[in-house]
Design goal:
The complex is a heterodimer of chains A (245) and B (153). Chain A has 245 residues and is of the alpha/beta class. Chain A is built from five helices and twelve strands. Chain A is globular and about 50 Å long. The N and C termini of chain A lie far apart (46 Å). In chain B, 61% of the residues lie in helices and 16% in strands. In chain B, a hairpin with a 5-residue loop joins strand 3 and strand 4. Chain B is rod-shaped, with a radius of gyration of 33 Å. The N and C termini of chain B lie far apart (99 Å). The chains are: A alpha/beta (245), B alpha+beta (153). Chains A and B meet through helix 1 of A and helix 2 and helix 4 of B.
């Protein structure tokens, strides 16, 4: 049987995220051909859901107001091959339909945090008891195969570990506290330190800037090599706390 | 082992080659390296030849300083051009963010929020300027208004 495919978008905590999520979901439908094959799961709080959410999403899952409900949502995806996209992003190219080809033989696929894009990162390098290290995976988009038990377990663990690191019930010795607010840390921990995930096949999107182009990047310095931007990330330029209207 | 050397990126400040901008690198007995930028005149105030100036020119050679001066002009021009392009791109990105926020505001207008016209809403989302956003917003509002009028008749 063919694996099901779909997108997952999470909007929690602030109403603005819900509005970003609706915009993202509608932009997916604007560009995905054929549109009826574009399956979208919206994970949000019940208090935010309105007709726009019900109209644009095929599946709706309710979450609580956790700061990192995205990981809860990712772990609950109803689709085998799932493409998670941060709510504050927008699709702007038809090549979005090719996203499934990026799965290849990987288990999970991310975009990269690289040295040449360092000028926009808030916190990337850090000390560990074994020496210097740095984050290399960006969790803004993530393509993963939930039909594999190892991936389901990984997603559950990522959510669980992030939840515990943020409520101070888990934190390893020798790591600075400022890293606690980053789900990149739990991701780094699981992929670099957890024995059971040493064989997890982690991939990077081909020409990954096409799949997650931070608007904070300077186009004159950093741009995709093989084609136009497919998904743009507006993270830096948004006032997430002030009501849009 | 201490040393003293003139770095090879010295350049003439003027076409007349009467002023020289150069860097002196020094290492002391315990291996600490310091660099000192110097602005030297060919002649002292009393008209006599400046010994340091002569030392630099003798050490590096006039041809090398000429070349570095020319290369530096080209390099500085290229850097200025690159800075200009980067600044332009930075401004474009800020404009795009503002436009994104403006579109989200438009999508919160009751009539646009409730509109089922996917085609017009998609055009609004793809709009490249505020004027374009306004134009499609008006079209959606007009359509909603006409639908309401038709409903009443």
């Amino acid at each position: 049987m063919e694996k099901s495919k779909g997108f997952i978008i999470v909007a929690s905590k602030k109403r603005n995220f819900y509005l970003y999520a609706i915009n993202l979901a509608e932009s997916l439908r604007d560009y995905y051909e054929p549109e009826d094959e574009c399956k979208i799961c919206l994970v949000t709080e019940e208090r935010f859901l309105d007709d726009r959410g019900r109209d644009v999403a095929d599946d709706i899952i309710f979450c609580d107001d956790h700061y990192r409900a995205k990981l809860y949502g990712m772990a609950k995806s109803p689709y085998d091959i799932t493409m998670y996209i941060d709510a504050d992003m927008e699709v702007e190219h038809e090549d979005i339909v090719k996203v499934w080809d990026e799965m290849k033989d990987h288990d999970v696929v991310f975009t990269a945090l690289t040295d040449d894009r360092d000028y926009i990162y808030a916190e990337r390098d850090f000390d560990t008891p074994e020496g210097k290290s740095k984050f290399t995976l960006c969790g803004a988009v993530c393509l993963y195969d939930m039909s594999k038990p190892i991936v389901r377990e990984f997603m559950d663990d990522w959510w669980d570990l992030t939840f515990r690191q943020m409520n101070d019930t888990w934190w390893p010795e020798g790591y600075v506290d400022s890293l606690k607010s980053w789900d990149q840390f739990s991701l780094w921990w699981l992929t670099e330190k957890e024995e059971k995930y040493k064989d997890l096949k982690v991939g990077i999107f081909d020409d990954d800037l096409r799949w997650n182009y931070y608007n904070a990047l300077n186009w004159a310095r950093t741009k995709p090599e093989t084609g136009p931007v497919i998904i743009r990330h507006f993270s830096a330029g948004l006032n997430k706390d002030t009501p849009i209207v | 082992m201490s040393y003293k050397r003139w770095m090879d990126n010295a350049f003439w400040e003027t076409d007349e080659k009467k002023e020289l901008n150069c860097i002196l690198e020094l290492e002391d007995d315990v291996g600490r390296v310091t660099r000192q930028q110097m602005f030297l005149h060919r002649h002292d105030k009393d008209g006599s030849e400046n010994e340091l100036f002569k030392e630099v020119v003798d050490a590096l050679g006039v041809d090398a300083i000429d070349k570095e001066t020319t290369d530096r002009v080209v390099r500085k021009k290229a850097e200025a051009e690159e800075d200009k392009i980067r600044e332009e791109e930075h401004q474009k990105a800020r404009k795009l963010e503002k436009l994104f926020n403006y579109k989200l505001e438009a999508f919160e207008v009751e009539e646009i929020k409730n509109s089922k016209n996917r085609k017009l809403k998609a055009k609004l989302r793809r709009a490249k300027s505020k004027i374009e956003v306004d134009m499609y917003s008006i079209m959606i509002l007009q359509e909603q208004l006409e639908a309401e009028t038709d409903g009443k008749e």
